[in-house]
Each structure stands twice: as C-alpha cells, then as structure tokens.
Write a structure and sequence with these properties.
By secondary structure, this protein is α+β, with helices and mostly antiparallel strands. 36% of the residues lie in helices and 15% in strands. Helix 2 (39-52) packs across helix 4 (82-93) and helix 11 crosses helix 12. 29% of the residues are buried.
Length: 344
Amino acid sequence: MSTKVDISKALVQYLNLISDNEAKQVLGKGWTLSFVYSFQEIRDVYLAFCRYGQYGTVAEFSNKYVRGVIPFTKSPWDEKGRRVLEIKNALINFGLIDRKTLKCTKGVFQEVAPGAPLSDDDNMVFRDIFFRYFRFMEYASLFLNPNMSSDEKRSLSEYRVLADSRVLFYYGFEGSRVDTLFYTLNHPDILFRFPVAENGKAKGGFLRFWDVFLSWAANLGLIERLNMKRQGFLLSDGKTFNACYFINTYCRINVREVLDTKFKRQLLIDISMLVMEVCMCFRCSINDAQQAIINYYLEHPETVSLIRTSEIFIKETELNSNDRILYPKYKGSFISHIKIREHE
C-alpha cells in the first residue's frame, strides 16, 4: 500500500530562472543552455579543436576531424555537424574556447587518443566546470532556496552547495519531463514550476537542461537519486516522483538518531526505509547509509538483529539506470529488515 503525498492544496509558484537577456549580460552571447551529456565527447572534440582549429564551417570540421575519428557515445555524429556545433557552443560557454577568436584554452585536458577512458584529472576538469558555470549553479541553487536572486545564484560556492543544500523532490506535471519541484513529503504547501512561455507550456530549454544538470551531477558522483515509488510513495493525484540531493561529504551519520525520531517504538523495520531516512536526514551516499546501519548492528549485537532474505522482492535486473537498491548486502545476502530486540 502506497503512502500518498497530498499536493491537492499546494499553491503553484513559478521559478525565476535567469532569462536569455540576463544570460547575454553574463556571457556576452545567447544559447547558454548547453545540452551536452558525454564528458568523453566534450573532451575529444575540444582536443580536436585544439589540434586543428576551425578554418571552415563546423560541418566541414566535423566531417574531417570528428566523424569516423572520434567515437560517439550514443547518437552518431551527423553530416551537418549539429552535434559538434552543440559541443563547440558548450566549450565557449565553459570558457574553454574563446568566443571571438575560437582559440582553445591550452592545457585543460591532456592529449589522449580519441575514445580513451576519462582520467581522474579529466573528471576534475568537469567538476570545476560544474561548480563554475552559472547555469549549473542556477540549478544547484534550487537545492538551497528556489527564490534566490541572480546575483546570489552566481555567487554560490561548491562548499555551500554540498554543506547547506537540502533534499529536493521532482516530477513531471504536464508530461514525462520534469517541470515541478517540492521540498517536503509532509503536505508540501508550494509546488515550484519551471517558467512557461506565452502558450502556457513550460519552456522546453529549461526542462531539458534539468536532465543535463542531473546527468552531470550524477556522473561526477555529486548527487544521489531515489525512486520514491519503490519506497512506497505516490502523489495524491497518482503520479510518481523522485528525490535527489547533493551528497554532503561533511556529514556525520547517526543511525540511532533516525531510529529514535522516525521509527520510534517500532521493533521490526524495513531496512530500505531506514536507509532512505538516513540518506534524507544526513544527505549521505546510499553506500555510506547502508554501511552505517551494518556498523550500528555490529556495535549493538545484544539489542539489534539483521534479517536476511534469499528471495528479496527487488530484482537488480529490473532496475532502470537511475534506480538503486536500498537493501544492503551483508555476508553475501540482502538484508530486508532490522529487528530491535529491546529499547535502551
């Protein structure tokens, strides 16, 4: 049986995201919402621009130096060079190619063969871009305060995002793309929606960039995402939703605190729910939450038991790419419940 999150009485507030005109003042150009996902493609196209420069059209550059040379990750390189143009624009936005001269900022990535695995140094470059590029920081601000001013968004630091942000819940109101956010499971009073155009539809660019933002943050190991339907939650209108948060690397996990506040007087606890509550309380990684619970058991063997199951009702092969099993494994078996034999 699902727990319903009542949104029937919640007010709707539209997010005040940085407009195209404001963005032009920041970068001196338009097209600031870059829809680029593959770190490997971005690195390899950057290196190609550094090696050869662009002396003709982007299509000519793409057909000579990219197609058949640089491996693609999902979508093939097109003959007209549209995908390379998208990456070129992103490189300009990120400050890796000069907008006017098209000269590369040298030494950003080490020279490697196209398609080489990403190195730790490569990932550090992308992490720096993530916390420096104003559009990523604008979306990161939604995890702190959805009403921040443009100046406040642009002044956000990596430390503040990781240390002070909170859990955010999201779903698609109009369709499959995420367009609505909220911040509490207990009768949220405001639903925050992405800006809409004159036709009343959400501006597609802002919705698409949410996917880019989450993809970058996940690939950099900065966030965790939780499928709330798997945890037994649905919205009161029947829609499914998800949770995500920036992992707080500065947190100290206290399992006993969560047991006392969220599971008071319960003697048999679904361990996936305990993992979820630990994650949301401390914004720790799922792995750290699971290990903290196992450690709590090892430290209190006289009052705590773990219940193993050989036929856990979640099949790993049925999970989609963004799902995680919250049930931990201990000595080769999934643990389904934690049993409190007595209260201290």
